[in-house]
Each structure stands twice: as C-alpha cells, then as structure tokens.
UniProtKB/TrEMBL annotation:
It comes from the Bacteria. This is Metalloregulator ArsR/SmtB family transcription factor. Residues 1-93 form the HTH arsR-type domain. Keywords: DNA-binding, Transcription, Transcription regulation. The lineage of its organism: Bacteria, Bacillati, Bacillota, Bacilli, Bacillales. Transmembrane segments: none annotated. InterPro entries: ArsR-like_HTH, HTH_ArsR_DNA-bd_dom, HTH_MetalResp_TranReg, WH-like_DNA-bd_sf, WH_DNA-bd_sf.
Length: 109
C-alpha cells in the first residue's frame, strides 16, 4: 500500500527560516523536543508546531522513547528540491559564463 501524500510539501516546509534551522540542528542527531526548544527563542509549543510541519512534509521522523518523542532528519524528501533546483542551474551557469566572457573581454581592452 502506498504511503499517504504529505500534508505540506517540501517547499512550504523549508520556506520558514526556523524550520531550516531545525533541519540543520537535526542533521546528525536525534533529539527530543525539550532539547530542541532550548536552541530557539520561542515556546516549546511553537517549536512543536514547526516540527509538525516538517514531519507532515516527511522531512523529520518521530520516534517514541518512553514518554518523550524524539525527532531526526529524513533528507529523502529534499531530493525533490534538489531536482527542481538542478533544472534551473543551467540558467545560472549561462549567466555566469556570460559574465566571465564579458569581464575577460573588458580586461583585454
């Protein structure tokens, strides 16, 4: 059976700077919300709401350990973002190439 589609997409989830910071914090370790919230100037409830959006987009996974819930990064959904950005890289490369040719031609003048 296929997994249900996420409630939030990756683009919506990473649009917020706090959520991007959360992803970076959870990059290499699993943490409970009590520890995570100590890294942010907001309430634990606010951090939990951000974590819920990330979880709904599939970017963080939750695991119950005793009475606490621990969170960890799941980078798999970021591949969608990487593929989307890769398409537009050709425009950046074209522009940078044109700039390089222009600068070099001005230097030769």
């Amino acid at each position: 059976m296929a997994e249900p589609s996420p409630k939030h997409d990756v683009f919506q989830a990473i649009a917020d700077p706090t959520r991007r910071r959360l992803l970076r914090l959870l990059d290499d370790q699993e943490m409970p919300v009590t520890v995570i919230s100590g890294h942010f100037p907001m309430t634990r409830t606010a951090v939990s709401k951000h974590l819920r959006i990330l979880a709904d987009a599939g970017l963080v996974k939750e695991k119950k350990v005793g009475r606490e819930t621990r969170y960890r990064l799941d980078p798999e959904p970021l591949l969608e973002l990487k593929r989307w950005l890769a398409y537009y890289e050709r425009y950046w490369e074209n522009k940078l190439g044109a700039l390089k040719r222009y600068v070099e031609s001005e230097a030769d003048s």
